Every structure is written in C-alpha cells, then in structure tokens.
Amino acid sequence: MSDDLSPEKGPKPAGRLDAATLRTLAQRAVDQPLVDDWQFDPSSISPRLLRLQLDPNAYPTNILVARLDVRWFVTDEYSIHYVEAREAAADPYQCRWDRHPKTTAPRTHFHPPPDAGDAESFSLNPHHLEVLFTVLDWVSDRVEALHGQ
What we know:
7-stranded antiparallel β-sheet, 2 helices, 21% helix
C-alpha cells in the first residue's frame, strides 16, 4: 500500500476503539451491494480500523481500488475515510467524515474530495448505522457520477 493510501493519514485515535460497533457496522455493510468484503486491520484480535472493500466491478476500470476505512470509538467519535486509487494518478481521490473535537471546525465535519481538504460543517444523526448508511449513499452517488463522466 502506498503511503498516500495509508489509513494513518486520518485523525489521531480518540480513546479506545469500539470493536462491537465495528463488527455491527461490518455485518450490516456487507448486505449493501457496493460492499464486497470487510476485515479488521491489522487483525480481529487488535483492530486499529475496519476496512470495507468496495466492489471493484461497480467502478469504471480506471479505478483500481475503492474502500472505506472506519474507526469508531467508545466515545461515539468516529472517522470514515473514503479512498479511491486511480490508474495513472499520483494522489488518491479521498474524503472523510469525522466526529471529534476540532478547534477549527464543528465536532461533526466533512473533509471534502478530492484530497480530504479543510473541514466543513456536516450535520448527521450520530447513530452508527445512520452514519454508515449515509456514507454508503454518498458512495453510491459517487459511483453513479463516475459512470456518467
């Protein structure tokens, strides 16, 4: 994995990961047509994040990899990082939904594509499944937009 696609580029962990919530998110996500598979990284024994692999067949052929890296903490803070690696592109297309204290943005915010730049205000029900399905709806819209280009 290139350094640009590293999940460590996101916000620093805010406490202990909520492994039970991550398992619930994984089990619900695979019922969605765009989610191909999931795994804990580096392992289920000591997860640092939940990685949702998105179905490569849903994307145009110039998209090599698409995934969501999910961190959910016992404090109900979270980070969901969308990453798309493109053929012949030096930098990935990426964005991130976060909920954590931030001095320069509201607690719940969005780092927009194409480079997960400066945080913008983002209002969302804090329930973990609501967050997941909102993000998956965004991914679905993204896939439709890619096919329309």
